[in-house]
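Researcher: Re-running this chain for the archive, since the previous output was lost when a drive failed. Same request as before.
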Amino acid sequence: MIGWEFPPNNAGGLGIACEGLTKALAKQHISQIFTLPKVLPIQTDYLEFASLDDPFFTQLHVNMKLYPSYGGMTKDQWNYLATKSALAGNSHNLIEQAYEYANLVSILSQKYDHDLIHGHDWFTYPAAIAAKKATGNPMLVHVHATEFDRTLAGSEDPRICRIEYEGLSNADKVIAVSEYTRQMVASKYQIPLSKIEVVHNGVDLQKQRSYYISNEELDLFARGHKIVVFVGRLTSQKGPDYFVKIAEKVSRAVPEALFVIAGSGDMYRQIVMQSGQSRLTGKLLFSGFLRDRQKEFLYRRADLFIMPSISEPFGIVPLEAAAAFTPVIISNQSGVKEVLHSAICADFWDTDYIAKKAIEVLTDPLYSYYLRENGAREVEQITWDRAASKCINVYQSLL
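Model: Regenerated structure tokens:
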């Protein structure tokens, strides 16, 4: 299995998905070698990590600095990073690093005995192809997002699109995290639908519920206020600017409401300015990127979670929020709506409707209770164990 991030060293949902899936596969006695392009301080009893900085590969080691491109970069950012790397005497950009990673994985794949190759998202596709050529073993790629999801229409990087096309075309099977993504892959890259299997992501309830957070601690945070939260990268794909528009409308009807944005990204300054122009200063709080207990605390304290993504292949955070007994509003342009039927759904651009539903949730205790109970009950069935079983079926079809 080929990845490029893994908790606690992750920038987004890709790492969380890899952690949840590998843990569930191990429970079902699937032995895995998980490769990463950098040495990371990871310790786990259920997975063996084959690091490319292993002494055995010393002669092949390149200090590959990974840029946070999973959230998508503008062309200006690409040019800036390429120029910065060249000035530093390192001409490697992320595209070159992906192919460099492929060369190393090709050698690594011949060292470890394995039955098939499983690559996660575009950064790993060249490596998966290289491993397939080196070993002759079947290969599948796991699509967590496409370049068309990560960027605004017309700003896709053609180099990444080419890598995605080559990976999808060379794969013996493709796993998509939703039917939404399956249709995206088929329409944008002309991949036959018969080649694409849907495996929805899950949620790690055991991990979430392992955090002890007292009611007293929750009550002390913004006592007397309703809390509405956004959790995600501050990039165009996730729609944080739409969240601010919604917050402005809700604030007029529910003046005691506070809004929390948990995440970081290239839109941070824009969102700060937008919140000031919307007269939300003091009402909209920025927590930065949260992990583990801090994130769980926010979910449990929240009165409402909103994910207004413009294009969301799946979206794990609404599942996490629902698991914490928090009502959820998600965009129609998200894959998670296929499994989280208790969530309120709306088009991301329809901020009037989303604000209206948000006000109902915040002012109607019975409606809020109904959404909390149904959501928490529903996520009990949306597990990584179920996702792992579906992956195993795909594995068996290849073998």
